């Protein structure tokens, strides 16, 4: 292994990043706690932080002027239904998107007759608030 790239100390663990990782990883992190005698080395995946978090949904810009971009991770070829709801739960827009394995960026155009305010965007599992300010 290569020499230590960085060390981060906290009260419970010392984190050390090392090089020469397995082919599907970008590095290794070593967790050590000498007080409790704990030591473990874990791989760091070759994915961006957003790719590495399946089941998460990110949206921007907030506030929006009319188009919201949704970033999500897929586990394979699948359809994802994105809904836009007002604060009472009334569906404003329901749209189906085809997504692929890994990172996906979806463009969700908000209806032009939609009033400024706070809305919920959901994929049925994760829901996020977005503010519309035209």
From TrEMBL:
Keyword Signal assigned: yes
Output this protein's name: T9SS type A sorting domain-containing protein
Q: Which InterPro entries match?
A: Secre_tail
Which keywords, in A-to-Z order, does the entry hold? Signal
Q: List residues of the Secretion system C-terminal sorting domain.
A: 59-125
**Signal peptide, first to last residue:** 1-19
